[in-house]
């Protein structure tokens, strides 16, 4: 993989960031932050000033008034949430809110991924309206594409409030209210917030009309759930999302939620020092494991647990099924990558499309993500669901919008699809599945040609998601070059001023040129992980870790104790409460004859 190093700042650019150190200014500038005022706002997120008015969301005021009416009239309310680590925290947000205001006439409904599929389910709507006499359904992180179930709700006299963040289709569902900031006529300033964040903004809208006795600002205690969802859902950690992630981590570090506390103890994570990596790589997979391997309500039960018995049970259960999930996914990844190499050894398509009726759709998003990273192109994978229908997941390599791809496929190929830039889901009929690969690659060609035409015409694209260049070279940016001696606590503190890191604000990556490993070893239960150690000029050692890196090609190069070019980020681990400053390995780059990095 070719790498390029971010260029130094020009004198004028450096002056615009004069209040910051050379390194901080460099990192900020190459993240699109080019002046002191914007930089201070970025480094010190401000909830009070950066928290947008919830009434700017289209239909929020109208929907809030309807919920208040339902609460005061004691109407039956159902919160219908998606089954992932965005929707489930959103369900827990409503659960907390209703409990805190003393409202009891509600149900949390999270559909079974395998049997019911994504989104609002028509059969569930009928069941809830008939058996539970539901008068109001509020969706969380779903519903924007569910035209038929919405019609059924209206037919049964159920008011439907859709809260979602996915891309709206050309024809919207008929609902009492739709709260989705991505609607063309919605004036909400931040188009990047996730589904649980939309749910939180809706709670803010309700409280703006009637606080139901809650003290001003009490809803901030819900930000731990918003933070989990924001850091789980691949949304850019800029703008309001940065506030949600930052404040969410602050609340999580002192959250009294028994389920989260117990799960963190089980994972040997010190809650006081919780990071965005802990959320994304430890909490999120266990929340998602519930729907991938069994009942999504188990993850909700963990977040909603109000006693130690339930907290212990669901923490153990989610950890166990997540371990089972990892084994199955590892086998699937190996199988899919083998097929890709065999079928496309000479000519890799723009979009990889594979399927097998025996593959479980609930696990294919994880597999597609791994393949998209390795092959650097969008990946669409499908299997058969519990109702024998063909369903699948797709993931972007980072540059391409999978939603734009699916929208450019001729009508009739997909019976259902949705998602956002980086990820999505779809359903295809038995008759059309054989055309899927051809049509997706044709769509990729159409989008590429559009991008080329726009570039040649020197005009801006009206919709960037519809004009992605799928042939952009696979090139990763290195922020700067460092020496092993430069890695110390002060450097770590300086880098972490830019945290939390994620999509839109990547963790800084550095080149350590010509370093010689003192030792190289594998460790872990299956010897899956790699550790290199380097000697600093003061005699101290610096460790560099690569989790699940034992099979990488560069590992052999580190055994001969010759100079390597190491690409890594700087991190401080707090495993078992012990602080350790170390490097997290991204790659080891081949050195050329001139002893320089090959780019």
Structure description:
The strands form four sheets. Strands 13-14-18-19-17-16-15 form a seven-stranded mixed sheet. It is globular and about 75 Å long. It is an alpha/beta fold. It has three domains: about 5-10 and about 475-590, Beta Barrel (OB fold (Dihydrolipoamide Acetyltransferase, E2P)); about 50-220 and about 240-250, inorganic pyrophosphatase (n-terminal core) (Alpha-Beta Complex), CATH 3.90.1640.30; about 345-465, Diaminopimelate Epimerase, Chain A, domain 1 (Roll). It starts with a strand and ends in a 10-residue tail after the last strand. Helix content is about 40%, strand content about 15%. Helix 6 (about 85-100) crosses helix 15. Residues about 460-475 and about 595-599 have low confidence and may be disordered. It has helices spanning about 10-15, 20-30, 35-45, 45-50, 60-70, 85-100, 115, 120-130, 145-155, 195-210, 225-230, 240-250, 260-265, 275-295, 295-305, 310-345, 360-375, 400-405, 435-455, 490-495; strands at about 5, 75-80, 105-110, 135-140, 160-165, 175-180, 350-355, 380-385, 390-395, 415-420, 425-430, 475-480, 480, 510-515, 520-525, 530-535, 540-545, 565-575, 580-590.
């Amino acid at each position: 993989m070719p790498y390029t190093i971010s260029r130094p700042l020009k004198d004028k650019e450096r002056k615009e960031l004069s209040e910051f150190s050379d390194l901080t200014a460099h990192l900020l500038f190459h993240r699109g932050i080019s002046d002191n005022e914007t930089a201070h706002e970025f480094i010190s997120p401000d909830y009070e000033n950066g928290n947008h008015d919830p009434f700017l969301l289209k239909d929020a005021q109208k929907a809030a008034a309807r919920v208040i009416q339902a609460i005061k009239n004691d109407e039956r309310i159902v919160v219908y949430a998606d089954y992932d680590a965005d929707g489930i925290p959103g369900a827990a947000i409503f659960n907390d809110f209703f409990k805190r205001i003393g409202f009891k006439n509600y149900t949390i409904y999270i559909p079974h991924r395998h049997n019911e599929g994504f989104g609002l389910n028509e059969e569930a709507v009928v069941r809830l309206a008939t058996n539970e006499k539901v008068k109001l359904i509020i969706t969380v992180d779903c519903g924007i594409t569910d035209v038929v179930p919405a019609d059924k709700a209206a037919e049964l006299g159920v008011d439907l409030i859709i809260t979602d963040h996915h891309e709206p289709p050309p024809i919207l569902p008929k609902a009492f209210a739709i709260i989705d900031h991505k609607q063309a006529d919605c004036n909400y300033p931040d188009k990047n917030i996730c589904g649980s964040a939309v749910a939180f903004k809706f709670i803010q809208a309700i409280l703006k009309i009637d606080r139901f006795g809650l003290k001003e600002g009490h809803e901030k205690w819900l930000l731990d759930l918003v933070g989990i969802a924001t850091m789980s859902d691949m949304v850019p950690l800029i703008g309001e999302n940065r506030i949600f992630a930052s404040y969410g981590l602050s609340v999580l570090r002192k959250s009294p939620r028994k389920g989260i506390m117990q799960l963190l103890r089980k994972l040997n994570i010190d809650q006081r020092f919780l990071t965005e990596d802990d959320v994304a790589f430890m909490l999120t997979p266990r929340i998602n494991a519930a729907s991938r391997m069994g009942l999504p309500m188990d993850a909700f039960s963990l977040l909603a647990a109000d006693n130690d018995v339930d907290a212990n049970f669901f923490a153990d259960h989610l950890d166990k099924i997540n371990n089972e999930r990892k084994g199955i996914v590892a086998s699937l990844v190996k199988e899919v990558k083998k097929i890709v190499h065999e079928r496309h050894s000479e000519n890799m398509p723009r979009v990889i499309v594979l399927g097998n009726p025996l593959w479980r759709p609930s696990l294919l998003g994880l597999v597609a993500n791994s393949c998209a990273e390795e092959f650097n192109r969008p990946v669409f994978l499908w299997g058969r669901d519990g109702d024998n229908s063909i369903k699948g997941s797709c993931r972007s390599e980072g540059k391409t919008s999978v939603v734009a791809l699916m929208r450019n496929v001729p009508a009739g190929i997909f019976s259902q699809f949705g998602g956002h830039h980086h990820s999505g889901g779809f359903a295809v009929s038995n008759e059309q599945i054989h055309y899927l690969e051809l049509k997706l690659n044709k769509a990729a060609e159409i989008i590429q040609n559009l991008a080329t035409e726009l570039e040649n015409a020197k005009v801006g694209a009206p919709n960037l998601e519809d004009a992605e260049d799928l042939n952009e070279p696979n090139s990763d940016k290195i922020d700067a070059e460092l020496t092993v001696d430069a890695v110390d606590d002060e450097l770590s503190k300086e880098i972490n001023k830019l945290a939390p890191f994620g999509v839109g604000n990547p963790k800084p990556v550095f080149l350590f040129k010509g370093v010689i490993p003192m030792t190289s070893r594998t460790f872990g239960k299956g010897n899956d992980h790699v550790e290199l150690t380097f000697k600093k000029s003061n005699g101290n050692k610096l460790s560099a870790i690569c989790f699940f890196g034992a099979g990488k090609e560069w590992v052999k190069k580190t055994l001969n104790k010759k100079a390597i070019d190491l690409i890594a980020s700087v991190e401080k681990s707090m495993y078992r409460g012990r602080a350790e400053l170390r490097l997290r390995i991204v790659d080891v780059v081949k050195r050329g004859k001139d002893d320089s990095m090959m780019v």
